[in-house]
Automatic annotation (TrEMBL):
Official protein name in the record: Carbohydrate binding protein with CBM9 domain
Pfam families: CBM9_1 (PF06452)
InterPro entries per UniProt: Carb-bd_dom_fam9
Domain (Carbohydrate-binding) ranges: 22-210
Signal peptide limits: none
GO biological process: carbohydrate catabolic process
Gene3D superfamilies from the UniProt entry: 2.60.40.1190
Lineage of the organism: Bacteria, Pseudomonadati, Verrucomicrobiota, Verrucomicrobiia, Verrucomicrobiales
MF term (GO), any: carbohydrate binding
């Protein structure tokens, strides 16, 4: 079997009572790497759970050198920051797909795009609810997205129990000269020559179970 027709990585999203989403008993994705540089990756964990009404997700990231972007707009601040990212797609043509990039401040940049890198920055998703917390050398982000949004966007199709998703971390750090190094950590290694999350090979499958 070649890499082109190999099965996509899968992650089981377990059902939970919405009043009892317990991340401490969850199964986590923990194998985020730096595919494009020989750097030991900091601990990065992602989990998702679902209820009848919502998809819940959580990131926990070790970060000893937090970078928080400045700027007049939310877009400038988020894209200039360490952040975590979740992408969803109706299919692997990525025409369209939907992205949510969230900073440690809890600012969320939502946008729609088409392959390749045709971004619609006017799209928004006010239904997304986010909480973030920064502690000693770590930050965490939790998000909740109504299942109705996944259905309305045709990400979760009628009668389906799985959908395409990508999960990523942008890990920034300060260089000795004060400039910023940008590191890129995917759940699924897209096998691209340069860092790129905006390709079909960066996606896996989320399977709703329970």
């Amino acid at each position: 079997m070649t890499a082109e027709n190999a099965p996509l990585p899968r992650f089981q999203v377990h059902r939970r009572d919405p009043s009892n989403v317990n991340w401490n008993q969850a199964t986590w994705i923990e194998d985020f790497q730096f595919p494009w540089e020989a750097t030991p990756p900091p601990s990065t964990k992602f989990c998702a759970q679902w209820s009848h009404d919502s998809l819940h997700f959580c990131f926990r990231c070790v970060d000893k050198d937090l970078v928080l972007g400045e700027g007049e707009t939310l877009k400038e601040r988020v894209l200039g920051s360490d952040r975590v990212e979740v992408f969803f797609a109706p299919d692997l043509t990525l025409d369209p797909y939907y992205a949510f990039e969230i900073s440690p401040r809890g600012e969320a940049l939502a946008y729609r795009a088409k392959h390749y890198r045709q971004f619609d920055w006017e799209w928004s998703c006010p239904e997304l609810k986010v909480e973030a917390q920064v502690e000693a050398q770590t930050y965490s982000v939790q998000g909740t997205l109504p299942m109705s949004v996944l259905r309305d966007l045709n990400i979760l199709k009628p009668g389906a129990t799985e959908f395409y998703a990508g999960v990523f971390r942008a890990e920034f750090s300060h260089k000795p000269d004060g400039s910023i190094h940008s590191g890129w950590m995917p759940w699924v290694n897209p096998q691209t020559e340069r860092p790129d999350f905006h390709v079909p090979s960066a996606f896996g499958v989320f399977e709703l179970v329970g």
